[in-house]
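Researcher: Here's a chain I'd like modeled. Treat it as a single chain, no partners, no ligands.
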Amino acid sequence: MNTSATRVLLGVRGMSRDAGQTVAAALAALPGVSRATPDDGQIEVHYDPTQLTIMDLVRAVRGQGFLAGML
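Model: Modeled as a single isolated chain. Structure tokens:
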């Protein structure tokens, strides 16, 4: 993976800190994500933009049952 990861903060509607662990694990499983750190209602993601787009990240969050958007 590229050493210069891009950081994005995603707002996740209705996500508790506990649910955030599950969402973070789903994001971290994507090729190109180096780190996903959840908090109440948001998640910080470090990813390689040559492998993923923000929409790919949002789709992964939606796949976990939450609405998400870039903050």
